[in-house]
Amino acid sequence: MSRLRVAAVTGAGSGIGRELALACAREGMALALTDIEATALAETAALAGALGVPVISQVGDVGREQDVEAFAQACEAEYGGVDWLFNNAGVAVLGPAWLATADDWQWLWHVNVMGVAHGVRCFVPRMLARGTRAHVVNTASAAGLATLAGSGVYAATKHAVVAFSECLAHDLLQAGAPIGVSVLCPSLLPTGIHQSGRNRPAGLDRTVPPAAAYEERVRVGMAASPIGAAEVAALTLEAIHQQRFYVIPHAHTGASVERRMHRILDDFRAQHPPTAEGGPTAQP
Length: 284
Ligand SMILES: NC(=O)c1ccc[n+]([C@@H]2O[C@H](COP(=O)([O-])OP(=O)(O)OC[C@H]3O[C@@H](n4cnc5c(N)ncnc54)[C@H](O)[C@@H]3O)[C@@H](O)[C@H]2O)c1
Hints:
The chain is α/β, with parallel strands linked by helices. Helix content is 48%, strand content 12%.
């Protein structure tokens, strides 16, 4: 009898993580779920269990290597390994770049970047050792592909996730490993992300003062999203099946990415005008 495929999801208690877990369950996959919020995690586990698949769950902080390693060990002990890993947990703060506090930087880096780093460090070597087909999805954001006022710290962490995911894909390709990578880059959609502060550690509570203008922008952006977390999860699974790297669920993201790329290339061309030989890179 063939073994059940297994999906591990971080930040599985809410929003996109919960829907990724349920989408995998609907594919008949066994689940390993983790989140820092015990009650929310138990709710997702119950919803997934009701779909008839095996589920284990473990409370933990993705920014703590020992928690992620314990989660990876639990996956190994229960299922013998993981086929799809979703490094999805994330948090946000908004505000002018110069008002972001050192605590803002530390907290967002801890969760958004180190969470992904620990996920890769703890799971990918086990996937490599097993040698079977596997896939890693890192949740970044459209804020990892383009930038916006008020998103300095968040965008910096999400650009880091995009860059790290690209390098992970290069490394796995170079190693000839049968492990695919995707980076999920949604624009605003309604989840609990605007209430990220609920999980902020007490020791890192000095934050940029809330600004009504940013909060309104998030409220409007979430309400205007033509898709919810379930659609984002479905598109992500489709991308895994099609071995697509960038998962960009919102149609309007394209325009912001184009604007940013044009700005980069316009400034580049102003400094390196095309030559008669055909281009700034033409060599003698
Ligand atoms: N919702 C959006 O508009 C949006 C847009 C782009 C990217 N994202 C990204 O999607 C991912 C999921 O966020 P969401 O929108 O579903 O928000 P959410 O708040 O609904 O879910 C995030 C989950 O992560 C958990 N979490 C927070 N800190 C954690 C930690 N230290 N360790 C483990 N779990 C922790 C939370 O408890 C929560 O269950 C995040 O990486 C976020 O940055 C969200």
